[in-house]
Amino acid sequence: MARFPLEGPEQLFHFTQAATPPKPPRAHRGAEPGEKLLITGIAGGKGRLIARRVADFFQIAGVDRVPWQGAPHNVRLHVVDLRKRKFEDVFRTERPDALVHLAFVRHFRSDPEVRHEVNVLGTKKVLEYAIAQGVKRIVVVSSSYVYGALPDNPYYVDEDYPLNVSRTYHEVRDLAEVDQLVTAFLWRHPEVATTILRPVNTLGYYTHSTIGHYLKQRYVPTIMGFNPMVQFIHEEDVAEAVALALQTGAHGVFNVAGPGAVPLKVAIRETGGTAVSLPESFARTAIGQLFRLGLYPTPPGAINFLKYPCTIDGGRFARETGFSPLFSLEDTFASVRH
Amino acid sequence: MLEAVTSLPFAAAESLSTTAGGFLPDAIGQLRHEIDERMLRIPTRLNAYGYDPWGFHVDTTRRSTLVTSLLYRYWFRVETHGIDRLPPGRALLISNHAGQIALDAAMISLACFLEGEPPRIVRGMGEYWLPTVPWVNIIMVRTGSVVGTRKNCIDLLENEEAVIAFPEGIRGMNKLIWERYQLQEFGQGFMRLALETHTPIVPIAVVGSEEQAPGIANLRPLARLLRMPAFPVTLTWPWFGPLGMVPLPVKYHIYFGEPLQFEGNPSDEDEVIAEKVEQVKGRIATMLAEGLARRRSLFW
């Protein structure tokens, strides 16, 4: 690639010298067996799966607002609200080496202020306590929604694509903020192996995802004349991705793609629902009204995800950790079939 | 709803093929058979549900191809020359563009599908507003096209697909009849993409398309008012209403040229890229001139 002539006026200039290649980022070592791992939001579906997946490797402590009945005996549980002062004590008593942060409010049943307080301020606190207690590795599970579903989206965007979700779906801008908060932390604290995972639509028995609830409806509303490609991943593969991130010490932002993409209506059919096409203007008004009355789980901004693609390229994570989803699309759909 | 809308022409074609079976040689049946057989041999990889990662769907394309193949065989009676020059693997097909409706794109794609060995699905690069149009967005994606972003184009080429682009763009599409076969200014994007992905460029000349809908004016203010990219006035449109959109049954000749391989820095200055673009444009101009000289008549 030497494109500079050997002789010529360019040689006089300092900037034509081939730049020294930037130093590779400091490699982080993976977790050692027996390290202490703290999982926030452990009682949720993903938290339980991740805890079970890494239980043999780490000493696990978990914190959640609600108790986890039937937790494995070797998991120490703290029932604390992340917004309370007592939360900091959990870090002091556990002194974890590793942290998996899952304590987010992703539904819209609670007040938007509570959402913001838990998601954005909560994440900020978690990161502060982690630094104060010398945590060596952090995994935060964000989601591919942060890129947003927009008409001119290219397919299979990589991690450098802007987080556009708030342009059309401002109710979830806190999730994009969380993602960027952690990204800033990742650059400010290179000594901590920080991994941000952005998995695609997660389906499974344990996970309560918005898309899961959407597909589990008997009659599933779709927008007339639109049928975008949608990617899916099985919840166990997300747990696997978190385990791999911890065990390899991958440092950076990573998309986590599943086994592939199908049109939305194929997913509805394969999970046993019946797609009902609604004209967009009607759907927006109806969903808006029903959402305000608390009768529909998502605000009308979510409609863009039923119209336009929001697909990601998971190549970087696969190269870095060797991740490859174990569950096929058929398996993934079967896990939520009704 | 979409099923109802899109399957109408297919259903019509299929019922025609069964009812006309008695006195017509079963042309549609044969054509369908041929399409099915060729669709099995396309190199595009599909998932368990018959989709490729960009939403291309075999069954939808099979049905739409049946309709457009009738145009290819019986309306435009397309003659394709030099299809064996289409290289296997990635290729960027660059052609002249005209005729108010992008039928030239459809006919080039069909040439690659019906005459190519192996049959190829040509991937189109759609305008940015197309994804917002109900149904159109689905048909566009299911038949193998995508929004024409840089990233989509690079991804498709790196997946060894054949991508078609018209560097004349809208300038060519809405040419007036006295400008026919005069290549308009070429955009440079295609060349930068070819350099970046080391893709051979296949120059294509389409003879016939430029007379299919003879434009006599383009009402730009009206187009702006209607938020359309152009408002063409042809010999038949808008005078005869929707019927005026039917193209003249001109004879199409599609000439595939030898692939051109360019090397260089994709982020070179415009002048450097323009030089390479001119080579492609010159090649197409020569092929057009040869094709026109060889043509006996507009209609056969």
Terminal Cα separation of chain A, in Å?
57 Å
Helix content of chain B: 40-55%
- Report the CATH architecture of the largest domain in chain B: 3-Layer(aba) Sandwich
Q: How can the largest sheet of chain A be summarized?
A: 7 strands, parallel
Which whole number gives the mean pLDDT of chain B?
A: 90
Biggest interface, and residues per chain? A-B, 29 and 28 residues
* CATH structural fold name of the domain at 36-209 and 233-258 and 310-326 in chain A: Rossmann fold
What structural class results from the helix and strand content of chain B?
alpha/beta
Write down the CATH class of the largest domain in chain B.
Answer: Alpha Beta
Strand content of chain A: 15-25%
Q: How many helical stretches of chain A?
A: 10
Computed Rg of chain A: 22 Å
Regions with little confidence, pLDDT below 50 for 5+ residues of chain B? 1-6
The strand order across the widest sheet of chain A is 3-2-1-4-5-6-10
Instruction: For the record, give the distance between the C-alpha atoms at the N and C termini of chain B, rounded to a whole number.
Output: 40 Å
Nearest-integer average pLDDT of chain A: 90
Please name the CATH architecture of the domain at 36-209 and 233-258 and 310-326 in chain A: 3-Layer(aba) Sandwich
- The count of β-strands of chain B is 9
Largest sheet features of chain B: 7 strands, mixed
Count of DSSP-assigned helices of chain B: 10
Overall shape of chain B: it is: globular
